[in-house]
Amino acid sequence: MVLRACGFIVFRRLASRVPPPDNIEYLLLQTSYGTHHWTPPKGHVDPGEDDLTTALRETKEEAGLGAEHLRVIDGFLQELRYEVQGKPKEVLYWLAELRDPGTAVTLSDEHRDYRWARLEEACTLAQYKDLQDTLRSAHRYLGALQDKQ
């Protein structure tokens, strides 16, 4: 049986003289368990729950950011597949912008720290290639959207 989790790549745009897309920072949470890895907010799907509802619930639980704080970006959905302790796992990530870049993050007990990081720092923190690729894909997607405006 495949373990399924869902979450958001949460980003904020900084009001600065730095031109897009370099004014974008991504939210990563550091786990309070295991190797204390860094990850976007995500969690397991509860029975009867749809994937997007899971992503919203987990982001609220883990980072204190609810649907009222986020703007889901249409057209971006990334699926990661890997093994955890020999068992298959799927993770779906949507992309969401923090409506107010100054909104505070409130961590749950599952995490011990958080960081807003530009793309390269976020990729360094992320460590896993598939998550790094997902962050880069999100960044390219946001760059393409910016070009269309």
Helix percent reads: 25-40%
| Fraction of residues in β-strands | 35-45%
How much is the radius of gyration in Å? 15 Å
Q: Provide the low-confidence segments as ranges.
A: none
Task: Give the overall form.
Answer: globular
H/E topology pattern: EEEEHEEEHH
Total helix count?
3
Q: Largest sheet, described in full?
A: 7 strands, mixed
> How many strand elements?
7
**Mean pLDDT metric:** 92
The termini sit apart by 43 Å
Summing up helix and strand content along with how strands pair, one would put the structural category as alpha+beta
What attributes does this structure have?
globular, single chain, 7-stranded mixed beta sheet, alpha+beta, 149 residues
Write structural notes for this entry:
Helix content is 28%, strand content 39%. The chain contains three helices and seven strands; from the N terminus they run ββββαβββαα. Strands 1, 2, 3, 4, 5, 6 and 7 form a seven-stranded mixed beta sheet that branches. The longest helix is centred in the C-terminal third of the chain and has 20 residues. The protein is globular and about 45 Å long. The N and C termini lie far apart (43 Å). The model has no long low-confidence stretch (mean pLDDT 92).
